[in-house]
């Protein structure tokens, strides 16, 4: 089986790899559209903070539960069918609720939350499975690239969602119609994703860990071509627990700062079309940065790339804070847009660091589970931060973001000193336990 793993990692790019990339990218695109449903629902349900907080509270359930089921019984393709079904049911419930109730009243909010909960569990469960699926089946030469480009469709989906909201709101002056337009766009994307995923192969490495050698060989026939290059092996310098702590801290820094600066600052401190325009600027910055972010980790040590992303993100928050301090909330908007764009460029680099490391630093038999557990830390923290920061001034809010970026910057320095480079290496060597120290 090690020979088959080497053949997978040294293979040329095939049409089956393209199908897998398309499948996961569509899932990430839906995730980006979904990210805009929270803010849209906040306004459609008449600025319901309860809806907003509860909307994000369900995320970690999908990450942990579906990630674990994917590792143990569902495999990768089976897990996708579960996630897509949950997303479809949730969209239907949420859409019908808004059509029938127009978002008014406690029952409307509760019904909307029920639909959102089902949808969120499906969407968040899709993420660890997608990252694991990509890492397990992509040749080492292209692995870093696709682990950045595919998740970047989250930003593209978010930008499209923000554009749908902005254009619908400016033409109808209705938060309700804007939310419904976004739900329809998400449903169309889901239908396309379902069609693509029906034709893709199962994860060869997952089949190998379950002892299904014959089926693994059959599935590998579409993924193994003439070798494009030899793959190397690395010797991990950090144990599994240390890798988890490293990724959880990076996630805490990037996930919260992205969510708070791209979304929360808009609907806590602004209103009307300005809300959606702030989100559009942020997501365009992240989307555009996804292209160079896909190639930088192949030409530089991944530890240096981590340092660039998080230290850069920390430094990019300083001019935002200064502009707010001296120009005020409304006066600094003209400066805020380009500064936010720059900050989101570094946020995308930081997100790229996470999507490169999370699926490769853990072994196949626990890969999706550990990705889910890593993601659970920032997701739960983000939900708490929504409640805590809802009563803060905008100045306090920005200082909090600087502190969060500082956590990521400090963690990146520590990884540069103690961590290891993962470029173009055999997946089994990158994810293996740290060798025992000689006696």
Describe this structure in words.
With 439 residues, the protein is mainly α. The chain has a single domain (4-8, 13-210, 235-430), classed as Growth Hormone, Chain: A (Up-down Bundle). Helices cover 80% and strands 0% of the residues. It is built from 17 helices and no strands. Helix 5 (106-137) runs antiparallel to helix 15 (367-389) and helix 6 (140-149) runs antiparallel to helix 14. The longest helix is centred in the first third of the chain and has 43 residues, at 59-101. The protein is globular. 56% of the residues are buried. The model has no long low-confidence stretch (mean pLDDT 93).
Summarize it.
The protein has 439 residues and is mainly α.
Structural class: mainly alpha
Tally of helical segments: 17
The helicity comes to over 70%
Low-confidence stretches: none
CATH topology: Growth Hormone, Chain: A
Order of helices and strands: HHHHHHHHHHHHHHHHH
The number of E-state strands comes to 0
Query: How far do the termini sit from each other?
Result: 31 Å
* CATH fourth-tier homologous superfamily: MFS general substrate transporter like domains
Strand content: under 5%
Using only C-alpha atoms, the radius of gyration works out to 21 Å
Transmembrane segments: 12-33, 45-66, 78-100, 146-169, 175-196, 244-270, 276-295, 307-328, 334-357, 395-415
GO molecular function: symporter activity
Subcellular location: Cell membrane
Keywords: Cell membrane, Membrane, Sugar transport, Symport, Transmembrane, Transmembrane helix, Transport
